[in-house]
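Technical note accompanying the year-one report. For the benefit of new consortium partners, we illustrate the data format agreed upon in the data management plan: each record pairs a sequence with a structure-token string. No post-processing was applied to the example shown here.
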Amino acid sequence: MKIKVGVVFGGKSVEHEVSIISAIQAINKMNGEKYEVIPIYITKEGHWYTGEVLKDIEIYQDLSLLKKYGKRVHLIEKDGSYILQGTGFFKKAIADVDIIFPITHGTNVEDGALQGYLQTIGVPYVGSNVYASVVGQDKVYMKALFKEAGLPITNYVWFYDTDYLTKQKEILEKVQQLKYPVIVKPATTGSSIGIGTARDEKELINAIEEATIYDSKIVVEEMVDHLKEYNISILGDYSHQEASAIEEVYSKSDILTFEDKYISSSKVKGKMGMKFTQKGSKGMATASRKVPANISKKLEKEISTYGLEAFKTLGSSGVARVDLMMNDETKQLYVNEINSIPGSLAFYLWEPVSKDYTTLLDEMITIGIRNYKKQEEKTHSFKSNILEGFTAHSGVKGKLK
């Protein structure tokens, strides 16, 4: 009997389209003999849909087709099973799933919100839990944990948008203690969305104003001189981790931009037979990169060590990508951030170490099932009712007898 895998993607996120690209890639690479793949698409309005038509990237060019051919559903638990239930009058069961595979990016879906919902329902799922997802999405929390773990990070400051409005001078003076140029980032977005650079106060103000469009929490950090960027993917959980090949990533600008990562025009043929141009259809695999990176064994070991430690520090699970920066003159390495659900699931980093995408997906699902079983063995509630026979004291209305 095949394992029924519900692949969840989309959502209320500025990385909505990137999620679609990553999910369709993965769906097409899952082992059809072992898994029955059930696509579950979350619209930008937060509505859930399922149906075979959602496996075709072409449908997302005209969302009216989605509502015509897909079925709107809710995910519920019923008699120990996990059901995609229709929203119509009769609440018909459309499909059932054994495990959920979130392939989502950004706020509201990658940041612990979706994971919390799945955990509340009780359905097994692939990837990091609520805690690791929250920290993995929030650069402020992330940096604090990295620093506590002794991992090298760049100097930074952070603040809320409301504080910036009322204490702009004070915050700008705080930032001035850093060394220009600096990078300004929304704390909880990914795919380089809303990120800007600044070499003076005027550029800093412009970059902060841009970042506040996307987030209420802003991070400003020193830019690394003579920058080289390296990424490594980690597979596993808190008890066991393994590292992928290392890539060196190139950008035409000071930072790796959204355009560098995803905007590359390529022709795609959908299952319906129509051809169209899909920007970013290959996801992160299109960025300018060298895999594996042409680096020394010493640097390779250092990057792997930091990547594994960052993954374990956050208690991540499944596949994550750790991004690092190096000053090519001093050879000082810094951990930049972790991506809990990286674009394209970083499959291209595993191919050089003889792990194809199908195998990677299979191992991620296996880890998700194993972690679910581990958690089920833990005590999460007590059978006894401590409120039984409770009598209310002063300050509490009424009495329970």
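Partners are asked to follow this layout when depositing records. The longest strand covers residues 227-236.
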